[in-house]
């Protein structure tokens, strides 16, 4: 594959998902978060890279949490119009915090109850309980999402 073809595919990826191409660290942190969230798999359906269409606002959060329900493997959904309980976004190297802050605001305006913004590099997670209130958790702390009754250690998320 030549460079020009690869560049076009990257652009298509980003355009289709309305988000940057994930990096090595981004993907590793996303996987680590899912592993930690597995402790809550009997309460929440944990989904990565789900296409949402919330009132004609397309988005693909890195991780979404929905109320737990059994999978219906015979009937899949390409796009989901129901807002997740929580949307988790991990900062990519080509994004700014402002990009993700604006996205968090949009999630709340579309019915999401909690939004996490994960910042590799400084190894912090911002847990927003509404558009104006958040707590910052560091990699050596226990993350607490009071709205969803989630608490989990962050020590392995950024390793």
Provide structural commentary.
There is one protein chain. The protein is an alpha+beta fold. It has a single domain (22-153), classed as tt1808, chain A (Alpha-Beta Complex), CATH 3.90.1570.10. Helix content is 26%, strand content 30%. The protein has a six-stranded mixed β-sheet with strand order 1-4-5-6-7-8, with helices on both faces. The radius of gyration is 16 Å and the shape is globular. Mean pLDDT is 90; it is low at 1-11.
Order of helices and strands: HHEEEEEHEEEEE
What is the approximate shape?
globular
- The fold-level CATH name is tt1808, chain A
Q: Measured on Cα atoms, how large is the radius of gyration?
A: 16 Å
CATH 4th-level superfamily: tt1808, chain A
Average pLDDT metric: 90
Q: What is the count of distinct domains?
A: 1
Unreliable sequence segments = 1-11
Using the coordinates above, name the CATH class: Alpha Beta
In the CATH hierarchy, the architecture is: Alpha-Beta Complex
What is the makeup of the main sheet? 6 strands, mixed
